[in-house]
Amino acid sequence: MKTDNKFGLWALAWPIFLEVFLQMLLGTVDTIMVSRISDDAVAVVGLSGQLFSALTTLFMTVASGAGILVAQKIGSKLAEDARTIAIMGLTSCAVIGLAMSAILFTFPHQLAGMLNVSDELLPLWDTYVRYVGGGMFLGAMMAALGTAIRNTGNTRAPMYTGIAMNILHIFLNYVLIFGAWGFPKWGLFGVTVSDNVCRLVAVIVLFYVFMNSFERRIGFADLRTFSLRLYKDILRIGWPLGVNMSGWVFSQLAIYSFIAMLGAKELAARTYMNSMESFCFMLGYAVALAIQIRIAHLFGASKTREAYRESFRALYIGLALVTANALLLFLLGNYFMRVFTSDPEILAIGKSLLALNLLLQPAKMLNMGMNNALSAVGDTRYPMVVALVSMTLIATGCSYALGIEAGWGLVAIYSCMITDEYVRGLLVLFRWRGQKYLRKAEKAKEPKASPGLDARDGALSV
């Protein structure tokens, strides 16, 4: 906050990339270890992950809106407002997370029925959803703390926390799943214990960093801080983001339920493929998130022209990175799939998706990059409308019509997802090029003529 150097693209992006890489690594190691339990366990983890993501959007609405405003207020030199917004974001997310934890811990069986979970998966589902979902409030606090800290320009602290969390999580997974070194052999239940212990440690560390991230230190008594004016600003930006995220996640949840209708092998193949795709996109995601922070800061500082140029610089970099990664996965994907499973049917399904991934990753980069640019300046409603229409009609509707009703299977579903990403990406690109919010901000900053003076040259009117 003392200098703008930390708001440079690469200064922001490389710690985010490393943090995301470690998160992806953690997810992959989770999948590999869980696959040693059974492919059914992998299917449960994959499907429940979509459910958790859907519910996560309920608190990410507040966390994302607060994060954007923190960066804008810092750019505008309004440090006290930034501090207040960050505190309200944290307390709101904690309350929402506690509500989600109660629902997931109490009603896992009912949720399974809604998602077409097969009878053979129910025992594993109940265990995983009850205990990992019961710790949802820790995930909510992690999201709020990490988002606020990153938007102050400090992307390194969440990265270091991620490193420690990954090391601890891999260790605990190993000893609690397989009963190594005298620890209990808990299988999938061991994964739930590992998840919650690691999230608790991360919350403690991030909260300490959070307390010292603003010009005036945050104490426990400050957690009661509330400003209705600023909270309205959070919701103004945040609720369309939340609806957008919810629409995407619920669309993916519906698609996962369609894949579950195809069979457990198709569901496991999609879960394995999703882990590999995540490594493709992590560099692009880091750039997209960094540019959101940077544009919000530039926008708050009224540097609108620089904000516009920076968005395209980031987009070109991101497209190059994700395309190169997708090509690498296409060439080596068959070898990577064998790390997860030796089942020939699952391997054959995964192989058919590798070529389609070459089309999917650039579309995701375009969509996320331009969405983040619009969000950074407060233009969140247009992307929300575009996303809801496209995801409902193309991603979800066409996936069911072609993949299930027409019987074309997983490849058809994947193709619908790709089409949806391109449609949304191109529409938000055209919106950004129109510069509506940038021009509005420039106009608001124009000096107004004083009464009795000519607006053109300041001469007295006659």
Would you kindly provide a brief summary of this structure?
The chain is mainly α and 462 residues long. It contains 15 helices and no strands. Helix 2 packs parallel to helix 5, helix 2 (39-75) packs antiparallel against helix 9 (228-262) and helix 6 (136-150) runs parallel beside helix 8.
Folded structure, characterized:
82% of the residues lie in helices and 0% in strands. The termini are far apart. The chain has one domain (10-438). The longest helix is centred in the first third of the chain and has 37 residues, at 39-75. 51% of the residues are buried. It is built from 15 helices and no strands. With 462 residues, it is an all-alpha fold.
